[in-house]
Amino acid sequence: MILVLDASAFFTGMHWSGTLATTHSVVEEIADLRAKGHLEVFLAGGLMVREPSPESTKTVKEAAAATGDLQVLSGTDIDLLALAIDISGLLVSDDFAVHNVAIRLGLPTQTIQQRRPRARVWRYRCQGCRKVSSDPGDCPVCGAQVRRSLIK
Per-residue pLDDT tens for 119-134? Predict the structure, then answer.
């Protein structure tokens, strides 16, 4: 199975073997010199750098909206999840929101240094009047801050 590596895989210095892939946005995200060195070693060893399909990107965004993680996922996270769908890869990341969406999508995942996360569903709730909202920010009813809260 192809391992789809998040940026955190390059920061740890761990050795990854087998067929490896990542996205251009992950490569661009790596600024640390040590991590860049690890990236260069993996590129020389055959690391594939690919872009996900628009269809998979749309699927990821829909799943992230359903779990309540869309607001916390970066474009890089979305690309990584979409690439894992495209190549039927094993997603390697320590990002809990990435894992949560991957679980929703039925993608196999592996953590790097963190514990394995459980599936969660989030919603946005006003801290003042407790009204449920679709987005974070200020409550349209009372003006208090709307925050992400756990449903299950």
Answer: 666 678 888 898 887 7
Domains of the chain: 3-110 (3.40.50.1010), 121-152 (no CATH)
User: What pTM did the predictor assign?
Assistant: 0.77
Q: At 45, which helix (H) or strand (E)?
A: none
Both tokens of 126, joined, read 């006003």
pLDDT tens for each residue of 57-73 = 999 999 999 888 998 99
